[in-house]
């Protein structure tokens, strides 16, 4: 924090370099990058080259796009940000999972909320089988356990058809 | 791949472990995704696998789904133990209608949106002339959630009054009278209705009244005309602004024009629910 406040006082924009897992480097203003808690802590520890070995170039590009836009956030452009967010979450589930894993690792809370809300909206009403397919998860329950889980939630499951589609 | 173990240690960073993505999004993310879903959806997704089940039980997910007055309902009203139970279990407990006040009232929370709903049986209301069998009778029927309704054979002065003191969560609530013209009767296993006493409702409307917590009176009038069908008659709405104190409301159904008799009316119950749920119900 100390370094960021002193740099803003002197009017100098402190730059940081982010390095993706593919080895690509991105130079950004510190004020943009510190939306990300993980990087903020590293900046406080004196780092200026930040390797992100969990984030590939494609995902990092998207995340930088998000951080740049949200760094411009003011009282007057709420609508613009809202539209940006709407566009931002369009894409395949695979893209979203890449992004959500990265956002979780980087601790960008706003982006986490945005992505999780979007995934939730998209799996709403889906069948258990469809969600397993989408998340590429195998069922690790034994038949007995599955029965037990079903019983536990009997109160919630009455009627209702779920959507089997995968998009 | 530019990143490997040695470059991590060169930079002094050692808290990262490379995780496979897609098929293994972190449990924290799963829990956050679930928190945006409705209770029924969350329970469904618990069936996916063990990780989802673990994530779906997190208290932080259910805390937001539970109504703010859950302790009041479970502990003070129903005398149930709350301590030591998961928020999810509390939600499950509350989602089933629970009788109180000697079984004359029920309370539950809606499984979809967590809103608090209440029903008050005809036996929990003051009905003028209820002890006179020439006018009124309590009759058993499985068409009522309380398994009993008050049946009016014939009367000059129709007056049904009720009141309620309950610690509602903040919000706007709607109140309904559930009524039917005609007496429920069962022929073998089929639903049937006896219309023999139905008369007098086309001459003058009945009057519904609701006295809201701030002392305002909402009055509506309506001709009863749907014979043989249970109708939820919308009486009015009230707003709760403070969920820490009991809210008091009064409601009534009257038809006190003594120039004619009326009869053949079943009074089942009064229903109170959040206005968002009320839209699904038909109104007067």
Automatic annotation (TrEMBL), chain A:
Pathway: Protein modification; protein ubiquitination
Claim: Cell wall biogenesis/degradation is one of the keywords in the record: no
Residue span of region Disordered: 143-167
Highest taxon in the source lineage: Eukaryota
Domain SKP1 component POZ residues, every copy: 14-71
A Pfam family of this chain: Skp1_POZ
UniProt biased composition (Basic and acidic residues): 147-160
Alphabetized UniProt keyword annotations: Ubl conjugation pathway
SMART domains reported for this sequence: Skp1 (SM00512)
Biological process annotations from GO: jasmonic acid mediated signaling pathway; protein ubiquitination; ubiquitin-dependent protein catabolic process
InterPro entries given in the database record: SKP1, SKP1-like, SKP1-like_dim_sf, SKP1/BTB/POZ_sf, Skp1_comp_dimer, Skp1_comp_POZ
Domain SKP1 component dimerisation: 110-156
Family: Belongs to the SKP1 family.
Role: Involved in ubiquitination and subsequent proteasomal degradation of target proteins. Together with CUL1, RBX1 and a F-box protein, it forms a SCF E3 ubiquitin ligase complex. The functional specificity of this complex depends on the type of F-box protein. In the SCF complex, it serves as an adapter that links the F-box protein to CUL1.
Subunit structure: Part of a SCF (SKP1-cullin-F-box) protein ligase complex.
Entry protein name: SKP1-like protein
TrEMBL record, chain B:
Stored Pfam families: F-box-like, PP2
Domain F-box: residue ranges: 19-65
Record-linked SMART domains: FBOX
Organism: Anisodus tanguticus
PANTHER family: F-BOX PROTEIN PP2-A13, F-BOX PROTEIN PP2-A15
Protein name: F-box domain-containing protein
SUPFAM superfamilies linked to this entry: F-box domain
